[in-house]
Amino acid sequence: MTSKHRATFLREFLREPFTVGAVAPSGISLADLITSPVPRTGNPVVVELGPGTGAFTAAVQRRLAGRGHHIAVEVHEQFAGLLAARYPQIDVAVTDARNLREVLAERGHQHADVIVSGLPWAAFSRSQQEELLGAVTDALTPDGAFTTFAYTLARFAPPARRLRRSLGNRFDEAVTSRTVWANVPPAFVYFCRRPRVTAPPHALIPT
């Protein structure tokens, strides 16, 4: 990632800290780990939620190697513009992640095979977390995979504990990875598979 992208990330964090959620983009080691469920064969539909300046995007692209459909859902227009310019092969949707089912439907897809999230869960309220996770489980295939990350130092904070409980309720399998100490700050990944049936689709959130 270039210094220009890092500067943009920091500027957006200072402007909207509760939606950006971090002072710097995630590192390569974390990116490789969180994108590991993206299959290296076939033509999967892979969605990134909150890709920012593309910390995980390059890793997804390496695994896809020109196959499938890679959709990035980013609410910040500044980040979305940078991402689209840097990765013209990616389908960038500038909207709230809670509109995921509508994003997929507009592109002719019923479900996603893999969803990779860079969203700042600790910055969300209980209701926001639940709405976002509902959108994720509604959008995944029955055998789909969802990955997201959290910072190790905050794993016992109330928002982190709440997220862990919600993931356990919404997926048949929700396990944590090793700590990626090379990331700044150190982080770990939640690997979630087989979404459980949820409530009816959520209302469309204004973009």
Global Rg: 16 Å
Q: Gap between N and C termini, in Å?
A: 27 Å
Helix content: 25-40%
Q: Low-confidence spans: pLDDT under 50, at least 5 residues?
A: 1-24, 199-203
Helix-and-strand structural type: alpha/beta
Strand content: 15-25%
Q: What composes the largest sheet?
A: 7 strands, mixed
- What strand line-up does the widest sheet have? 3-2-1-4-5-7-6
Total strands: the figure is: 7
User: What average pLDDT do the residues reach?
Assistant: 87
N-to-C order of helices and strands: HHHEHEHEHEHEHEE
What form results from the Cα inertia axes?
globular
Total number of helical segments?
A: 8
Overall description:
This protein is an alpha/beta fold and 207 residues long. 37% of the residues lie in helices and 22% in strands. It has eight helices and seven strands; from the N terminus they run αααβαβαβαβαβαββ. The protein has helices at 3-15, 17-20, 28-34, 57-64, 77-86, 100-106, 126-139, 158-170, and strands at 45-49, 69-73, 91-93, 112-117, 140-151, 171-176, 187-195. β4 (112-117), α7 and β5 (140-151) form a beta-alpha-beta unit. The longest helix has 14 residues, at 126-139.
Structure, briefly:
The protein is an alpha/beta fold and 207 residues long. It has helices at residues 3-15, 17-20, 28-34, 57-64, 77-86, 100-106, 126-139, 158-170; strands spanning 45-49, 69-73, 91-93, 112-117, 140-151, 171-176, 187-195. The chain is built from eight helices and seven strands, in the order αααβαβαβαβαβαββ.
